[in-house]
UniProtKB/TrEMBL annotation:
The keyword Transmembrane helix applies. This is ABC transmembrane type-1 domain-containing protein. It comes from Mycobacterium kansasii. Keywords: Membrane, Transmembrane, Transmembrane helix. Pfam families: ABC_membrane_2. It is a multi-pass membrane protein. The keyword Zinc-finger does not apply. It comes from the Bacteria.
Length: 80
């Protein structure tokens, strides 16, 4: 049971790191989209928009994993 709690902590830290990478991807994509729009470069703008939506879908996956991890952590903590 103690091993499960340690695994939960490691998973939580990993998800926090993934949220950091997600934030970087999201804001980099927005920056590319805005720069492409300002310069009139449709290819760069479209690339930034696509990157934004990929980042949003990535967030959905990571957020779902975070909710599962928190619920599992609560359950394991109550049983420990």
């Amino acid at each position: 049971m103690f091993g499960a709690l340690l695994l939960s902590v490691i998973t939580s830290v990993r998800l926090t790191v993934l949220f950091t990478y997600y934030s970087n991807d999201l804001y980099s994509a927005l920056q590319a989209a805005f720069q492409g729009a300002a310069a009139g470069n449709d290819a760069v703008r479209d690339s930034g928009i696509h990157g934004f939506w990929v980042a949003i879908w990535t967030f959905c996956v990571i957020a779902t994993l975070q909710v599962i991890q928190v619920m599992t952590d609560l359950y394991v903590t109550q049983r420990f």
